[in-house]
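Here is a typical protein record:
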Amino acid sequence: MEKFANPFTDHPRSLGMSWLSHGIGAVVIGARMIGAGAACIVHAAVPALFTDTAGRTVQSLAEHMRARKASCPDWPDYEI
């Protein structure tokens, strides 16, 4: 048996999500991470800017993932 019989739907379904809702969620989380990373790069050049952006983003994403995991007992710690 293959690891993923359907690479587009098996993983989202295992988390109780559709392909579309999983994709939208992953894009939103990824975009927030990219934004936080860009803020860190700007902060490196101008320390007065974006002093807490990355930290707030990481905390917010961690809270989001904890809440999502609580609604799905089989949700692994590392899944988005």
User: Anything to note?
Assistant: The two ends are 25 Å apart (CA to CA).
